[in-house]
Amino acid sequence: MNRIQIGGTILATAATLAAVLFYLKFDAWVAIPSARTPMTRLLKDPASAQFRDERLTRAGVLCGEVNAKNSMGGYIGFRKYISVNEQSVYIEHDGVLGEWKTADIIAQLERKNELLRQYIQWRKEGVDVPEYSDREMDEKANKRLFESRWKELCEGVMA
Asked: Where are the bilayer-spanning segments (predicted)?
């Protein structure tokens, strides 16, 4: 074998290895950063965002955890997030970021009604239930809404 053939073989092997590496890392290098863009746009300080445990579902939904700075400049701690598309982004404890769709509003109100019915039932049964403000009930409903979205979109079969 002459030097040109050896060089060609080495070049072809290197190109094949590069293609295989790109294929194996496509999600981490291209798909995940692209899918997280709608969510990072809605953060107070997008440049501060730190990500972990990210994965794409077969449906193209990005699930993971994010830690970013709030308006006071402090990190909030890692929270689960779901990035479905430009309009549907959910962050644990915050609920829906961006514009609420009608379906999200209805789902949040349904969760709030479930909570209220539960508290009313407990009071009838004589259980000592603390008084919650309307805002606290909204937060509890948002938490339940996020948990149901997480189970529905992220705990299913992953890609």
From this structure: 6-24
